[in-house]
Structure formats: structure tokens, C-alpha cells
Amino acid sequence: MSAGMSGSPPSRVSQADPESPSLGKRPNEHNYNARATMGSWARRTGFRGMSNGSDIEINLSDGTHVAVPSNLSAEQPPAGRRDLEAGSAGPNNGALATKDAGPRGPPGSFNSSKARPVESDVSRNSSGQLRIEPLRMFKHQDDVVEQSQDEDDHMMLSKHSHMKYELRENPGLVPLILYAAQHYLSIAGSLILIPLIIVPAMGGTPEDTAKVVSSMLMVTGLSTLLHTSFGSRLPLIQGASFVYLAPALSIIFSSEFANLTENRFKRTMRELQGAMIIGSAFQAFLGYSGAMSLILRAINPVVVAPTVAAVGLAFYAYGFPVVGRCVEIGIPQLLLLVLFALYLRKIAVFGHRIFQVYAVPLGLALTWAYAFLLTESKVYTYSGCSLSQRGNTTLTPQCQQRMTTMLSCRTDVSNALSTSAWFRFPYPFQWGVPTFHWQTAVVMMVASIIASVDSVGAYHASSLLVASRAPTPGVVSRSIGLEGLTSILAGFWGTGSGATTLTENVHTIAVTKMGSRRPVEFGACILILMSVIGKISGFIASIPQVIVAALLVFMWTMLAAMGLSNLRYSETGSSRNVLIVGLSLFLSLSIPSYFQQYDNTSSTSTLPTYFQPYNVAAHGPFHTSSKPVSSLTSAYNYLKIQLAS
């Protein structure tokens, strides 16, 4: 059999060609199948093995066939070209072989004298070529998953196959600024909303909120620059993740910190810092040791879908109860977000779909301006009742009700903007030396694994868009390891959350067709500069809580939906898969309710009901006078709340 094969992959010389896909050309211009280079999400990121165990049979002209092991059926990419920027690996189309085609494997791997004869149909096409067919077997669920993923990857590649700028291209000054603004405005919600939730929950002042926002901007900029240079090297932004919100609230409302009367904010923040540092160090170890790839092989899309969806559903009790405090502002905010995201998303202004990319910042700006007009029009000004009387226990019931309305609807409640300094440099350990306890550290370790699984999906989707193939296991391990190191930076600065890949960024890449990482790097530098301007952080900290809650309703809904969308990679008709997903989602809501019934102080506590499940996570139904046993049960309860939410 000779060496000619139609649709053969490019040689190693052609892979180093200046017109490789990473330098601006698409894979199809090399005359090979781009779909074969991508594989599937599961196979290329560790969710599934590289082989499903079945062999390939080659029909010969004498009526016999040879079973070839699957590990010899395709060429391996050169060992020196494993990076996403190094060009695509040569695929094996595997469609047709000529009559005298030689073996693709090592010399001597085919021996026709030892081939076993079978009775099978040998078909030739008009050119005399023989068709290579896989061994006939019943379809296993793994095969269905991989076939579905291949089709989905091929659809994504064909839909987004024309990027305006490739990975290493410089778009110029004006496009650089415009696309950087698009990237970072699209993730504004994830960037600033977490401090607006956890700092007031810790008893922090508006000034403390502004400082945490400033630290968040600093860490986001530094983490993004590190990842675009030494991590995945993709145009992805590293910011605060909602995955860390549930464990953070469990620590904040534990009995050890909820009852503090002095320096509660700083002492709680130092505990969060210590837990974050240990959990992130564990994540870095998993990444750089390669252990994360082994963990991901045990996790399939049926596990990922309810896990990510449960993160969005876990805070359902926070959304509308807070929005309902001021429905004349919260409801219009929700309607605007739905209008922009669903009905105006295809409308382009100067060639840009601003409503699709900027749904969250546009909704925030318009609703905030509307609330400001209501405040300045004195809609929420009442005679005999003013904001200066808040905290007064002798108010009349009517004034107390009006006080709640004013605190929820007025835009001048927070004094963060007026009290913030013009310039303030965030620095590590600004809240003091972190404290370390193994119970809270274990919780953050679990959260880091969940955040890593979520990041792998972002690596895969963005790599398909900008490099036309899925990331290799080496790229994934390196990225997860660096993600752990950048989360350690978040622990040093005290942001209250780890730094993970923001999935909203992938959506922006697909919409804007901007595959270059230069705008992301430029925007990261701008974030670092913004972090030292205290008035910017004070302005962000002044966003009314009702507007924050309405934004979170929309974002948590999208997070739950994106998690469930991973089910397209699985066999959704399987009763086993349906049971796993349904039971996981149900228990994610039911277990926190189970813990809440053991809160003995719920009737007299001033804590809002949506935070009570995290308040009782430290004890639940278990009570003991032994301190070691109490520590074990506390860690166990923390983990149950974390895994449930």
C-alpha cells in the first residue's frame, strides 16, 4: 500500500508556516478538516478519555480485514507544538484510503497474513477506493456524548469562523480602546456586585465597600495580565466568581463571626483571606501537578450542568425580596434588562450590537438615572421623617415604614462617594494578618474545584473561537494552576472572592469578533489605574441595593441557564441523566431549607431571611460540647451547604 491519502494533514513544516491559524489564517486554508483538530469538549479538556476503546477495521481487496487499535488510527501532533499559538495539529480525516495506501501507524503494524477472514460487504466507489468503517457496535452513551460535542464544536466554528482580529494581532489605538471598553463593560456586573453583597453582610461601612471594590479592580487587572501572558494566553478576563459567594456567606454568618460587636468586618475579612489563600494554593497544586486533569476525567457534563446551575439558583431568596422593597425602581430595571437581552439584541448602532453586549451596564445606567430623578423630585421626601433619623428606635410605625422606603429607593443613602479619598493605593494585607482555620479552608478548597470546572468550559469555548481548536490538557493544567496563584493574590488583597475566568467574556468575543488579546490587556491596565482613584470605587459603592438585586436576578438567571445548557453535550433522553440533574437541583434548594429550621434565633434575629441558611450552616442539627467534634461537624455542615448551593 502506497503512502498517498486524500485529505492528508499538513506536514510539520507546514505547521510552522507563517500563515498558520494562530497568525491570521483559518484552518480550512490548509486543506484539512478543522473539525478533526477540535475533538470534543470532553476529550480535549479531560471530561472524557481520548479513546472510547473500539478498534477500526480496514477492508482489504481480498475479502479480509484487519482490526487496528484505536491508538494507532490517528497521528499524534508533534510534541513541540502543544500551545494554542503554535498552529493546529495535523488531523486524520480518516474518510477514504486508496487501494494501495500504506499503513498510517509504525512499520510492521499491519500483517495481512495474520488478518482474520470475515464475511462482510466490501464496497468500492467509482474511483476504486475502499471505505474504512468503524466496528459495528451498539451506541454507548459516551459515543453519543462525543458525537454531540463534535457537532456542537463544528457548529460553533462555522458560525464564528471569521474573526476581525486574530489572537496576536494589534487592532490599532481606536479599536483597541473601543473593544477594551466592550469587554470590561460586559462583565461590569460580575466585577462589582460581589463586594456590594458581602461587605454590608460583614458589617462594613460604605467606605469599606469602596475599599474592597478598589482592591477588586486591582486584583482583576493583575490577574488578567498574568493569564494573557503566562496562563491560557487567551483574551479572557479573570474576575470575581459567584462560586465563592455561598462559602463566603457561610463563613460570614457563622456563630464565630456573626455575633462580633467590635471590628467585625476586619476580623471576618481576615478569616476569608486565610481560607482563600489555602484553597487557592490547593487549586494551584491541582493545576501544576496535573491532578486536575485526572479529576476532570471523572466529571462529565451531567455533573457540570446542575453544579453550575445550582450556583445561580442558590440565591433565589435574595433576588425578588430585595427588589420588592422598591418595586417602582426594581421592576423597571428587570424589564429593561429583558428588553435589551431578548428584543433589542439584534439592533446595531454604528455597526455594534450595543444592547446585546451592554445589556447590564445600560440597564444599570438608565435605572440609576431614573432613580436619581425620583430622589431629586422629592418623591421619597416625607415631612417629619428624614434619613438623619435612621437607627432611632423611637420612630412611629408610619415613619419606620417610610424609613424603609427611603433607604431602599433613594440614591443619596450612601456616603461612600463623599467620604472616599481621591487617591488610595490598595495594598496586600490592608485588613491585617490573615487568620487560618482548617474548617473554612476546606470549604474554599471545594469552591476552588467547582470554579476550576467552570473555567474549563470558558477555556474550551474561547479557544474554539480564536484558535479554532480546543485547548490541550497541558494548557488547561497551566491555566488552572495560574488561576490558583491569582486567587492567592485575591486573598492577599482581601477581595472576599477568588479570581476565576468570567464566562461573560466569551460571549463578548463571539459577538464582537475580536479575537485579539490586546484589548483585554489594555483594559486590565486601565483597571489597575482606576483602582488607585478612590472616587471611582466610592461611586460604584453608591449603587442602591434595589438596583444591585435586580441586576443579580438577571445575572443569576443567566448563570443557571448557562449551566443547564451543558446538557446538550449529554444524552438528555437518558432516565439516569434526568434523575441526576433533577435530584441535584432539588437538593440544592432543599438542603439549605433543612438547615434553616435548626436556627433557634430566627424568630428574634434581625438577619434577613435570605441569609439565614448561611447563618445556621455552622451548626445545623448537630450539637456537642467537645471542641474537636464541633470543629468536625462545623466543617461537615459547611461542606453540605457549599455542595448544595
From TrEMBL:
Record InterPro entries: NCS2
Positions of transmembrane segments: 173-198, 210-230, 242-260, 272-291, 298-316, 322-343, 355-373, 522-540, 546-565, 577-595
Annotated segments matching region Disordered: 1-127
Record has Mitochondrion as a keyword: no
Subcellular location: Membrane
GO CC terms, sorted: membrane
Alphabetic keyword roster: Membrane, Transmembrane, Transmembrane helix
GO molecular function terms noted in the UniProt entry: transmembrane transporter activity
Family of this protein: Belongs to the nucleobase:cation symporter-2 (NCS2) (TC 2.A.40) family.
Protein's UniProt name: Nucleobase-ascorbate transporter 12
Taxonomic source organism: Ceratodon purpureus (Fire moss)
